[in-house]
Specification:
globular, 6 strands, six-stranded mixed beta sheet, binds zinc ion
């Protein structure tokens, strides 16, 4: 099928052709094995930001990681109110069906969602005009307060603190899911916080005892 060359997709189709010619062909046996199912050991929650693709950061093969991406790499708390709980559904699938052994929440530098949480620039926006984002990142409101008090609401120091606080909040929210906390207490599931600094290309892991993010050597 001919692709309209004016479409942005046309450039991606070129990438698809490279994938078919190299990536897919080289890993053909891997794809054949995956035809019958997937057994990823790790779930990654990441931001939808185009610069923090977990498969790229971890150089992961197909079938290796189960990924959920959204604004600011957030996990909402366990809630049973009506609505469409996309992250909760993915989490349920990863934990109960795929039985992943680890869940990694990976925040990142220069996160627009965290920045908006900090500045509250979308506060009061209508749904479709920024309101969905404002509502989603309002999860960070409480975590924002001490950061805004200490660092203000602008500049990288404040933003990085917000980005890293968001990871910690998502880990705390993960533990509000009974299936997660139960498996974690039995040693069947591990949670990890991570932070990918885009400009440096460096991955940091959270030491939950000290609360510090340490670069991976
Ligand atoms: Zn982001």
């Amino acid at each position: 099928m001919a692709i309209d060359p004016t479409l942005e997709l046309a450039g991606l189709i070129e990438g698809y052709r490279r994938f078919r010619a190299t990536g897919w062909a080289e890993r053909r046996e891997r794809w054949a094995a995956l035809r019958h199912g997937q057994e990823p050991r790790v779930m990654v929650v990441a931001c939808a930001d185009s610069r923090t693709d977990p498969a790229m950061v971890f150089d992961a093969d197909p079938g290796e990681i189960f990924v959920v991406r959204n604004i600011a790499a957030m996990v909402p708390p366990f809630e049973t109110n009506p609505g469409f709980h996309g992250v909760s559904a993915a989490l349920e699938f990863a934990v109960q069906v795929l039985k992943v052994r680890e869940i990694v929440v990976m925040g990142h530098g220069m996160c627009g969602g965290c920045k908006a949480a900090l500045t509250q620039e979308l506060h009061g926006s209508e749904p479709g005009q920024g309101g969905f984002i404002a509502d989603w990142i309002s999860m960070l409101d409480e975590a924002r307060e001490p950061i805004a008090a200490e660092f203000g609401t602008e500049g990288r120091e404040a933003e990085r603190a917000m980005e890293q606080a968001a990871v910690k909040l998502s880990l705390a929210n993960l533990r509000t899911f009974p299936c997660v906390s139960e498996l974690e207490s039995r040693g069947k599931l591990r949670l990890r916080g991570a932070f990918f600094a885009i400009a440096e290309g460096i991955l940091y892991l959270l030491d939950e005892e000290s609360g510090e993010f340490q670069p991976v050597s």
